[in-house]
Amino acid sequence: MAFLTSFVPRAVRTGLLGDGVCHRVVQSKATVGRFHVRMQSASTESEDKFVADALKSDKVVVFATTTCPYCAQVKDLFNSLNLPFKSYNLNTMDDGAYIRQSLLRSTSQRTVPNVFIGGEHVGGCDDTIAALESGNLQKLLSKVGLAI
Fold first, then answer.
1. What is the pLDDT of residues 118-140, one digit of tens each?
2. 6, 70, 135, 144: which could form a disulfide with 118 (CB 3.0–4.6 Å)?
């Protein structure tokens, strides 16, 4: 399978920074059998800034989707521990797919939930539970002035 990539200097879309924000779009075409597939992804600073700002504004951040049972499990865990956290449901956000790409670039994690404590990446559901069981979650929380 070969990908032909062409760069479009600017494209306009609506999103985090409002209507008409310019960003760079990468388009790829692939031929799979008889079918032509067009893929499009965007790489913008606004999504990276959104993630950075989210991590600065809250001590515990969960990037999730409303349909993911593992996301619900992490949220239920934090609620049962009376742990304050901010959750961003990416599947309900206009720029959720772009934010997810930003998270992938910064963490190399493709799945949700994507958990951060004090700006430090914890990982997904299994990683968060393992951190709780090992005591590492408590250490991360104490660094940001939280206890469970």
1. 999 999 999 999 999 999 999 99
2. 144
Per-residue pLDDT at 57 exceeds 80: yes
In SS3 terms, 47-75 reads as: HHHHHHHHHHHCCEEEEECCCCHHHHHHH
- The partner residues of 62 in beta bridges, in order of sequence, read 87, 115
How many angstroms separate the CA atoms of 97 and 76, rounded? 24
SS percent in the chain: helix, strand, coil, step 5: 40, 35, 30
Give the distance, in angstroms, between the CA of residue 47 and the centroid of all CA atoms in the same chain: 9
Q: Does pTM surpass 0.90? A: no
Side chain identity at 93, as an amino acid letter?
A: M
Q: How far apart are CA 63 and CA 45, in angstroms?
A: 18
Query: 113 is written with which tokens?
Result: 């939930």
pLDDT at 32: 60
- CA–CA distance, 116 with 28 (Å, rounded to integer): 32
pLDDT tens figures, 95-114: 999 999 999 999 999 999 99
Element (DSSP H or E) covering residue 117: strand 114-117
